[in-house]
Amino acid sequence: MWTGETDLLERYWGNICLYWDRVLSHVNDEGLWTTNQVLADIRVGLHPENGKQSSGIVTPWIIERLHWSADMASAIGRSEKAKAWKKTAATMEQAFRKFHIVPASDTIPAHVGDRFDPTNPKLSRGYSQAGQTIAITTGLMSGPDARKNINYAFPAPDGTPPEGVTRWNNPTYGYRVLRALSTLGFTERAAAHCIERYSPYLPGNPRNPVPLILQGPYGGPLPEYWVSREDLNLKPGQKNPAQPHDETGSHGWQSVPLLWLHDTLLGVKIIEPGGGRIRITPDDAGFPYVAGHVLTPKGLVWVDWDAQTFTLEIEIPDDVITEVLMPKACRGKPLQIIEKAGKVNTLPPGFNYAIYEGGKYVFGVR
């Protein structure tokens, strides 16, 4: 997606095929991915105990990556393999919705179970925050059920889970939690959740137990896993059993909120390999404004959305087709193009724009 080049895809094509041959050998006739042989450092929820059980937490990752690999196969002309992988992914999606989504009961909404055993349907299924997020970001659970589910697993005001729902703790899920909440319209709650989870590690924050003299200029140290002393109601001096002996050294694992700040709050997404087409759709998450630069393959993109004056200012590099979707607060209001460096095409339903030249553009409400 970043370079648009296919040399590496060609070079490692054999490796990709070997990988998927091995992984997909665990898909049964119904499309259920059954194995407990998973290298996944996920210390939440319930996990498969034998090769006949299936993980509701890990399966969506496999399906997502299978789609990615199919796209890569298409990019280098391996159309038959791309077609086969997409067909398998579709079968796995159907199986996931059939077996891993637990129907609603009493006050608990439909949700993704941590695991499923075809030979023992009464086995405890589990309900974890992590299991819901990846299913939603990959589109395996959507619509009203997804909204009810995420609202239950991450209730207002800051997404602290109710009793019976396991917190996410692996940093891999940090980004996907924020994306899942935002995707379903809970961006303000996502921001509150981010602040709540990070407060114990911010510089000078009252919730940071590290002596000030040991805190760096940016706070920290970040933990290995995101289960805090507060989460476990530990007393001073008690060791956090959810952390290794050295509690520091949180993995990045493409999970940090920085990515969410760029692709959701600033709303800049690369939608074509090589960055020749991008989309800008800011979301202020309840803040008075959001502003910043996003690095794309074609250069820096500047976004400044002022939610108080309903003004969106962007600056885009050359050789980029830019789709602009005005923030929700502008919809239904008369809009105007205040400044433009080139031609702007207005697309239906009237708050979408297409830009084909680099430069500065400003949009606002009349």
Give the H and E element order: HHEHHEEEHHHHHEEEEEEEEEE
How far apart, in Å, are the first and last alpha carbons?
37 Å
Biggest pleated sheet: 5 strands, mixed
Percent in strands: 15-25%
Low-confidence stretches: none
Note the total helix count: 9
Write down the Rg.
22 Å
Describe the structure.
This protein is of the alpha+beta class. Helices cover 30% and strands 17% of the residues. The protein contains 9 helices and 14 strands. It has helices spanning 7-11, 13-24, 59-75, 79-100, 129-137, 143-153, 172-183, 187-198, 257-265; strands spanning 54-55, 101-102, 111-112, 115-116, 268-270, 277-280, 289-296, 299-306, 311-316, 321-325, 335-339, 344-347, 352-355, 359-365. A hairpin with a 6-residue loop joins β5 (268-270) and β6. The longest helix has 22 residues, at 79-100. The chain starts with 6 loop residues before the first helix and ends with a strand.
Features:
single chain, alpha+beta, five-stranded mixed sheet, 366 residues, 17% strand, 30% helix, five-stranded antiparallel sheet
